[in-house]
Amino acid sequence: MKQQSATMTSKSRHTFVSRTFYDLVFSVVLLTLGLVLTACTPSTAVSTPVATASASSNYAGKKILFIDSYHEGYAWSDGVIKGTKTVLDNTGVDLKLVHMDTKNNPSPDFAKAAGEQVKAEIDTFKPDVVIATDDNAQKYVIVPYFKDTKLPVVFDGVNWDASIYGYPASNVTGMIEVELPGQLVDQLKSYAKGAKLGYLTIDSETERKIVDIYNQRFFNGQMKPYWVKTQDEFKQAFLQAQNEVDILFMGNNAGSDRWDEAEMKQFILDNGKIPTGSINDWMAPYAMVTLAKSSEEQGEWAAKAALRILDGTPVSSIPVSENKKGKLILNLTLAEKLGAVFAPSMLKNAEIYQAGK
Question: What is the pTM of this model?
Answer without folding.
Answer: 0.74
